[in-house]
Amino acid sequence: MPYWRLSTFYLFYFVSIGAFVPYWTLYLKSLGYSSAEIGELMAVIMITKVVSPNVWGWLADHTGRRMLIVQIGCVCAALGFVGVFFAENYWQLMLVMLFYSFFWNATLPQFEATTLNHLGDNPHRYSMIRLWGSIGFIIAVALLGQILAIEGAMIVPQVLLAVLAVIALMSLWMPAERVDTTPSVDSEPLLQVLRKPQVAAVLVACFLNQASHGPYYTFYTIYLETHGYSSGVIGLLWALGVIAEVGVFLIMHRLVQGIGLRRLFMISMMLTSVRWVMIGFGVENPAVLLAAQLLHAASFGIYHAVAIQLIHRFFKGKHQGKGQAMYSSVSFGLGGAVGALYAGYLWEWAGATQTFLVAAVLSAAAYLVVWRGVRGMH
């Protein structure tokens, strides 16, 4: 297994996420956009996640050229992002984000499927590779937070373009993989897989859980900044959350074997609700914020590692690429878009605390869906 090549891609891919997610909204705010407009601009990136992974996932599964899809996505995303420097208004920037994210959102689901194929009969080892992505995120948020404290938010697009260019070059170094597209004896039609109650329950729960992250991914940095936290401290808080995530990834294979996928899924969603309540009511208390960031280990680390393995278990053979694409589009795509939109509108109308309370209700609903709909799974 090409452990280091796969791990290095995750490292740099999530350096870009660590530069984008916490600080892109600060850049948009520095351009003078309102909370609603920021929510809309973030939502359009998520909306492409609904369509893009499925289009590219279908192509990957039918051509068997999964890594070629990753390479096309990385190169075109880097080229598309150049348009940010020429966009002069809201609509031009939205079009640039639409083009960039259509290609960018094609890459990760196919890379996840490739990684799991390399792992073969040991999918529980996925977290040992994926943790390098978390390390990349930590490096990005910590360093860029310090840089922004000196240079300001206008440097964010330059940093992002440089990282995207590196990822595009790195994708050409990744191991090529041809996928066997001939139907296997136990291969089921895709619709038959989707009709299974457990599959539907997992996808609905993923949608609700990611929708609950809307206020966090869209406004957490702005929220802290308005309460007097510096860019450096904000970067360190983001980093702390992902450090906790890395800690979980290191022991995830043991947690799965000892606790089971269903129970871990429910635990992650219950603790996600607790986290949003803590952030909504405890922003003035640094100790509460620190504790809330440690819960990122559950709200993303456990959640994502479990979801990836469940999807890999449900979507077999020629459906693997489509399965990972569907997980990405339903959760990070549709869930992320709904989350960014309701966060943008509620933030101005009801305020930050109430917005995070809505988030807590959504993750609690995800818990109930798993409790009721996912049975007999270890």
List its salient traits.
16 helices, single chain, 378 residues, mainly alpha
Structure overview:
- The protein is an all-alpha fold and 378 residues long.
- The chain is 81% helix and 0% strand.
- The chain is globular.
- It has helices at residues 3-30, 35-63, 66-81, 90-104, 107-119, 126-151, 156-171, 190-194, 197-211, 214-226, 231-259, 261-281, 286-294, 296-314, 320-349, 352-373.
- Helix 1 (3-30) packs antiparallel against helix 7 (156-171), helix 2 (35-63) runs antiparallel to helix 3 and helix 15 (320-349) runs antiparallel to helix 16.
- The chain starts with a helix and ends in a 5-residue tail after the last helix.
- The succession of helices and strands, N to C, reads HHHHHHHHHHHHHHHH
Structural class: mainly alpha
Biggest sheet layout: none
Number of helices: 16
The number of E-state strands comes to 0
Q: Could you say which overall geometry the principal axes of the C-alpha atoms support?
A: globular
Give the C-alpha Rg.
19 Å
Beta-strand percent range? under 5%
Mean pLDDT value = 88
Helix content: over 70%
Could you list the spans in which at least 5 consecutive residues all have pLDDT below 50? Answer: 178-186
Oligomer description? single chain
> How many angstroms separate the termini?
26 Å
